[in-house]
Amino acid sequence: MRPAPVDLRQRLQSELDTLLARHDTIDAHLHNADRDVPGDWTDRAQLFENDTVLEALDGRTRARIVQIRLALERLGDPAWGRCVRCSEPIPPARLAALPTTMVCKSCAEAVGQ
Ligand SMILES: [Zn+2]
Rounded to whole angstroms, what are the CA distances from 48 to 23, 25, 28, 37, 81? Predict the structure, then answer.
């Protein structure tokens, strides 16, 4: 088993904290916790249009949160650092650049990621 570097765990944890805070902010905003909904219809239309952008951003944020949580779980696993497709070790440089990746470069290319 190749132990995961401590700094990688810290990096993932700190990105996770940032994303969770962002998710909370977006969530509160979308549920009108921090704003007044305008009475004017065109202003409301603009507001809801902005909401769809925020919802898309929140969707990406939540997807990333899931990726990071999975990566943090895998860090403690003996299989960490090995490609889930071909079982070859993933080079440390790739893991440092893409700490949530589960596949090596050639497998990533093979599956079009
Ligand atoms: Zn592979």
Answer: 18, 16, 14, 10, 43
